[in-house]
Structures are given as structure tokens and as C-alpha cells.
Amino acid sequence: MEPSHENGHCDSCGRSNVVLYKLSLGHDFFDRPYDRLTSPGDLFPRWYCEECSREKDFQRDVRAIREEFVKLRCGQCSLLDSPSVFSRARQRIAEIDQSVKRGRGPHVILAPREVAHLLMELDSWAEEHDGGENGVKNETVGKG
């Protein structure tokens, strides 16, 4: 995140006269790098206030975990095949859920119901596949 001390406005919530951050380079929950600025469609980087930049980080993690969870449910190879990774991802979603519930409102980037729904899905999956203790079975899920 690159801070800017210019007096602009947040491209998400519209707040002005606050420190703004440009989100362009970083890593997702699974430590995969991302670079929003190399996309041909991202010619105009967006600037976010502190609250919106935190919510944008949450959104990135929710998307990454949801994408891997979809693969897991479809029986495809997923980073969530590992019980420890599944557990860590479920914990991260629970932390995000708590943060958006007690945070500001209305949320302009990440809807609290979206996070709560993913958390319920992860919990249901865990219950169905090993009683909820580890998230997934010790053997590869969907492969046998």
C-alpha cells in the first residue's frame, strides 16, 4: 500500500481530507502476489481511505478463499485440501466477519452478509467432512 498525503477523496466512500492509500501490489491470503496495475483495464488506480483500504484487503482475502473453496467443493485441486490451511482460512473469514460486524456501516466494498454466508458455508463443509474439527478429511477431498 502506498500512502499519499494529498488532499483528495476516497474513491470508494468519498471521504475527503484524509490520508489516502493506493492498493496496487501485494499478496493474497495464500501469499500469491497480485498486481492490479499491470492489468490493461486498470489504467486509473483507485485511492482509498484507511477504512476502505482495510475493507479492500478483507475483500481480497474473501475472494481468494471463496475461489479456493469453490474448487474444493467441485472436487478440484485446491489450496484448502490441507486441513491446516482450511482451518487457517476459516479463522481468517471468522476474523473478517467479526470486524465487519462491529465496524463502520454501511460497508461500501464488502457486504457483511457476503462474509457471513462464506463462513456458514465453510462451517457446514467442515461439519459434513470430519465433524468440524479440521475442516477437511486427512485424505484428499473429492479424489477418492
Task: Describe this entry's structure for a reader.
The chain has 144 residues and is mostly helical. It has one domain. The protein contains three helices and five strands. The protein has helices at 50-73, 83-102, 112-130, and strands at 2-4, 20-22, 25-27, 33-35, 47-48. The chain has a three-stranded antiparallel beta sheet with strand order 1-2-5. A two-stranded antiparallel ribbon has the order 3-4.
Give short descriptive properties of this protein.
three-stranded antiparallel beta sheet; mainly alpha; two-stranded antiparallel ribbon; 10% strand; 144 residues
Task: Draw up the topology in text.
Elements: E1 2-4, E2 20-22, E3 25-27, E4 33-35, E5 47-48, H1 50-73, H2 83-102, H3 112-130
Antiparallel strand pairs: 1-2, 2-5, 3-4
Helix pairs in contact: 1-2, 1-3, 2-3
Task: Give the gist of this structure.
With 144 residues, this protein is mainly α. The chain has helices at residues 50-73, 83-102, 112-130, and strands at residues 2-4, 20-22, 25-27, 33-35, 47-48.
Element order: H for helix, E for strand: EEEEEHHH
| Helix-and-strand structural type | mainly alpha
Through-space gap between termini: 43 Å
Count of alpha/pi helices: 3
Helix content: 40-55%
Mean pLDDT: 80
Radius of gyration: 17 Å
Q: What percent strand? A: 5-15%
